[in-house]
């Protein structure tokens, strides 16, 4: 399974802000939006394009457009925090939503919502969630999208744990994973260490 660690000095600096307990909601949101925009460039680097004719003020010339539509799929609720950064770059993208919450006793994901735009089979699907901890939620979300016909899927997160990368790759070895950081491990409560705490709570101020 291809794993891509997106290393960039601005990402490293913004990630430091996000990790800090001294960063309030506004600082957390701002830094997450910045990282999401930077991740978007790397995640979409190998998307196929096709040549189209464009008329400039001086003459006609060749230009490019994406060969397939893009569908952005945040895993609710924390994935919504990364969505705006991607939409700012991919303004024409459709948006689907997957609702998965973690059972705090079993640490397993439970589905409560699933809504996708039409044409998933013909689209480039980018699944978004800040944390790849146990890997269960992301892998389950990919299962759901595959059942809807998606074949071109990539997953992007802010922070991944080695255990989550291994578990995700075991179930979906063909789906590339992009992360801004690969942390040390999971603790006994299945939280990423050193991590940043609960991304959804910190983004939404709850």
Can you walk me through this structure?
The chain has 206 residues and is of the alpha/beta class. It has one domain (3-204): Rossmann fold (3-Layer(aba) Sandwich). Helix content is 33%, strand content 32%. It is built from 6 helices and 13 strands. It has helices spanning 9-19, 25-43, 80-89, 136-147, 162-171, 199-204; strands spanning 3-5, 49-55, 60-66, 70-76, 94-95, 97-102, 109-115, 124-128, 131-132, 152-160, 177-182, 185-186, 192-193. Helix 1 runs antiparallel to helix 2 (25-43). The chain is globular and about 60 Å long.
Features:
globular; 32% strand; two-stranded antiparallel sheet; 206 residues; Rossmann fold
Class by SSE composition: alpha/beta
CATH class categorisation? Alpha Beta
> Main β-sheet, in a few words?
9 strands, mixed
What is the level-2 CATH architecture name? 3-Layer(aba) Sandwich
Rg, rounded, reads: 17 Å
**Poorly predicted sequence stretches spanning 5 or more consecutive residues:** none
Mean pLDDT: 93
Order of helices and strands: EHHEEEHEEEEEHEHEEEH
Number of strands: 13
Which fold name fills CATH's third level, the topology? Rossmann fold
